[in-house]
Design a protein that fits this description.
Number of helices: 12
Largest sheet: 10 strands, mixed
Number of strands: 20
Shape: globular
Strand content: 15-25%
Radius of gyration: 21 Å
Oligomer: single chain
Helix content: 25-40%
Amino acid sequence: MKVDVLLGLQWGDEGKGKAVDVLTPHYDMVARFQGGPNAGHTLEFEGHKMVLHTIPSGIFRENTKNVIGNGVIIDPYVLGLEIAEASAFTDVKSKLFISQKANLILPTHRLLDHANEAAMGSKKIGSTLKGIGPTYTDKTARKGLRVGDLLTGDFDTKYRQLKASHLRQIECMGFDYSEVRMEGMLFAEYEKAWLEAVERLRNYALVSTEYLINNALSAGQSVLAEGAQGTLLDVDFGTYPYVTSSNTITAGACNGLGVGPSSIGRVFGLFKAYCTRVGTGIFPTELFDETGEYLRQQGHEFGATTKRPRRCGWIDLNLLRYACMLNGVTDLIMMKTDVLNGFETIKACTEYEVAGVRTGEIPYRLDETAVPVYREFEGWKQPLCEGKLDSRLEAYLHFVEQFLGRKTFMVSYGPDRDETLLF
């Protein structure tokens, strides 16, 4: 068996949670391979709405194992809240497996995140302030704490040492964290809650998930790898430096789960019928007018994790083609087509004009000098009928397929798991 991969082709927020939830009945295991609680995957089912930040999106399907891989970073307090909420709908403990090699987000990592953003002033990244960057920094510096350390006798000592190191850094930066709040709490209160959550985390299945996954493949079981964020936030290939701190592309699934490249099967690439971005960084097709605001309101484009309003614009097919190339996408999934139901015409960027020259390639430094060149399409101007595509939407979808050189596997026309067309 192979590991199929599902990931975003834009700047995140493409609807990965819903897509994983829809696909999960076809898989024995769903595994998150990167990112942390800066991601928010929203699921709606049977009249319920749930936002997952760390737990894989297959958790609400019966008979499916859910794995938090080694490439994920974990805040025990945030994960504990998520487990408590999800447990109202399913038996999380029996279906959740957590990698011993996953790194932990400490309370002081979150303070460092605040300090780093404050130091950058107007050039700040637009961090979610969840401690993501500092945690991955400690991971690559080989001094982070991992889930497996909870099972040893020296965790408390390691924690105190790393905490002291972080506080010295913050002091040297001259940052006053006395008023910084994390999940509504000041540092001392949050640290106490965090340490209590660590104790509860010890009661879960903390295992070598690389063995769990590879043994499942050897036994003929199917595995779906779930990414967080999106391709254009990849630390290597995204719109650097306004990116996340991990590899969000297909190759990250190998690193983040401990599977070889030859184990990768289908790659499902998700994208919205338009485009959004949260935080700072270039966004060539961003709309600053009433159309952009209409997309924001109709699409409920506010961060699942931060609640920040998302920047909205037309779809950028240049960047989508680039993302398909990087990921080896085999199947396309178009999300949120219903948001465009009210448009007479819609637009898609097919080229950039840079210094008077048109190009479809992504330059090393994509900036404001790249002016989008649009192609217009007739809007479908009505809600989708269940099981049937309007001919105008079908024409738009066919153009996207031709431009990207991939076929569509799924179209979503609403937030509920049932509002989905499979091809």
